[in-house]
Amino acid sequence: MKIYNVLAPTLLVLLMGSCGGNSEDKxxxxxLEIKNQKKTYTTxxxxxxxxxxxxxxxxxxxxxxxxxxxxxxxxxxxxxSGKKLGEKVLIAKIYSNGEVFExxxxxxxxxxxxxxxxxxxxxxxxxxxxxxYTQGLEFENDTLYESTGQYKESSLRKTDYKxxxxxxxxxxxxxxxxxxxxILNNKIYQLTYRENTGFIYSLKTMEQTxxxxxxxxxxxxxxxxxxENNIYKSDGTDRIWTLNSNTLAEKDYIEIFTNTSKISSVNxxxxxxxxxxxxxxxxxxxxxxxxANGAVEGVIDLTDLKDKVTQHPKLDVLNxxxxxxxxxxxxxxxxNWDKLFKIEIIQK
Length: 348
Prior knowledge:
This protein is mostly beta strands. The protein contains 1 helix and 28 strands.
């Protein structure tokens, strides 16, 4: 009996150590290698991969993923054509006798083309409320709707853009900081900054009819929507999230990259002829983004537009983009700007 008592803890330690060793063996059983590995890739690249079977484990099948998306492999080659841009994990899942092993490599996929550069021409100038800390701007027919920010000052507004008159205003409670907005199916959707809350209003009455919460996205920044009723949401990072318009749940995201680097602090959004136009916070520029993969196809330089409004202590950055169906025409304002500009976009 005494011998059993001495041996039992020893056996338990050995068994636990054996289990831990098996776990490590399983983790390191395979390694994934990329031939001619590079720091970054583009959507024109084809990866040549090989799987190193360190323990000579008999395999049943191997499936490859880019993050959570399953991808095809031809022979030992993986084409990046059509893949979303960004910092990804290439994963090989190896199936063997009911067990699953994994091997992975981190890769960064950039756009394969350099963004086109655009400038602008002012066509018209309209008055805008200098006290409006603009966060979102969108037309519904010829009526301009605006979301404004700052705690204790946030609002949702219906305006006459030609005169600057505020036709109707809904003030947010003091604990909310208003952010981007979009209008879809006779509803207005408005974000808040760090409160993890979005508001839903009736377009006709501007009465609040519901709320929604965010998922994995960090904060609420900008909103827009496409013709297929997908809603797009920026969260202050390099990501733009796709929301289900019925549930407002986050379905997926794109990462915003040029041919050289990622674009962080993506802010106010507008859907323009199949592309996402995104204000880059504090940059005075608008990125033209492919919603399918996150590639920046163009950049509109508006850095000097702020100089054309009344200068005052509370004047802040450009942050209002509205499109009303006129080709190459945008309506632009900013935080505490006293002007709304109708501009024509011109390629340099």
